[in-house]
Amino acid sequence: MARITVEDCLKQVNNRFALIHLAAKRVRQLRKGAEALVPSKNRDVVVALREIAAGRVFPMTPEEVEALEQARQQALADELSQPVEETDPSEKETEEATQQELNPEGM
């Protein structure tokens, strides 16, 4: 595999400072168990740089981070606000049949 260079990464990221921050953040993610986005048997730092150069990892502006967080919160709120059915329809039928067996007169 060819060597990764800073110049390859700078095609994706505006400056070296941003590149270092992005690579460091991605290395931390990889060390916590995140799956690599490019095949590589190198150290985490090299994998992170390869991912950046390949355009698989990119920086987000604060506005993009905020918009993503709001979308996540909205999705969670939508999920929590949907009614949850307490029993399965087949369970209701079973309950009704059991009641009829216990009270054959329909009481």
Q: What would your notes on this structure say?
A:
The protein contains five helices and no strands. With 107 residues, it is an all-alpha fold. Helix 2 crosses helix 3. The radius of gyration is 27 Å and the shape is elongated.
Strand content: under 5%
CATH superfamily: RNA polymerase subunit, RPB6/omega
Estimated structural class: mainly alpha
CATH fold description: Eukaryotic RPB6 RNA polymerase subunit
Helix-strand blueprint:
Blueprint lengths: L5 H5 L5 H16 L12 H10 L8 H20 L7 H14 L5
Give a quick precis of the structure.
By secondary structure, the chain is mostly helical. The chain is built from five helices and no strands. The longest helix is centred in the last third of the chain and has 20 residues, at 62-81.
Entry keywords:
107 residues, mainly alpha, Eukaryotic RPB6 RNA polymerase subunit, 5 helices, 0% strand, elongated
